Amino acid sequence: MTYKRKVLLLSALVAVLALIYILTFVFDSENSSGAAFAWLDPSLFVMADGLEISGPEGRTVLKRRSGVWFVSGDSGEFPAKQERVDDLFELLGRKANYPVRSSSSEGIERLALTEESAYRITVRGGAGLPLLDLLVGSADALGREVYLRRAPWNQIYSAEDSFSYFLGLKANSWYDLRLFPAELSVDSIQQVEVSFPDEAYILRRSGRGWIIIGKEDALDANRVEAFLKRLLEAEADSFAVSAPEIVEGKIAIQFGNGTTRSLEAGPLIEESNRNAIVSGSSYFYALSERTFYNLFKISSYYFL
Description:
This protein is of the alpha+beta class and 304 residues long. It has two domains: 30-173, no CATH class; 186-302, no CATH class. The protein is built from five helices and 18 strands. The chain has helices at residues 3-26, 82-92, 105-110, 221-232, 289-295; strands at residues 34-37, 48-55, 58-65, 68-73, 76-79, 96-102, 119-125, 129-139, 145-150, 156-160, 189-196, 199-206, 209-212, 238-240, 249-255, 260-265, 273-278, 284-288. It has a ten-stranded antiparallel sheet with strand order 1-6-10-9-8-7-2-3-4-5, with no helix packed on it. The longest helix is centred in the N-terminal third of the chain and has 24 residues, at 3-26. It is elongated, with a radius of gyration of 27 Å. It starts with a helix and ends in a 9-residue tail after the last helix. Residues 3-32 have low confidence and may be disordered.
């Protein structure tokens, strides 16, 4: 046997022994039994009024006021994505089989489940008492499962990794940044007035299609409808601290019931954002330049 083959054989043997050690540690036969349970009893959802997502990089705090969730921070409280909060509670309240993998202090350290290294999901209710304090550690070798521990107990469980989606610590990931209410529909739009430094024009519904007032060229109805859908589903990049001092772009949407919604955006400022306001909202928004470009199209964009 050549030296090179001996090295390869020894390397393979070391790898196999290391794998056996890891499997013996993580999947201890005495701790591999599983029990079906939910991390948080759904009957407690109504009591929940606080949610904290924390980790080594920081913390995001959500609070519920009159049944509505808000992201709370140094600059105030901003509306949260209610659907995302609901999805997290659905995951925590889902009854599933969570096998016990270990209960040793070594396991807690190795699987990143110490209070210093783990991500943490804390649900609070009433006087701030924790209804759930769940630590989320590292993923398994294949990245399909994640290890979990309920503080302050030591038992370590494994579960399919549906938890990482909720562990983003940037507050923006929890903000509801839609510019217009979700219930508004393209079918109810009768007219859209667009004005910005390059141009000003009015899109108006005409029969089954659309026209630009004052222009005779035929419009691509599919392109107009796609633009309107994009407009109603548009999201800001973040919340801003103030309204725009100067309005550089405005879109006014007129609906069939006679109501109007408007978006007003200011000039480009630092970090390539524009401050904006939306009628019917008490918040200020920061629009990226890309979003501004997608919403303020020159009229030739709609022509066949």
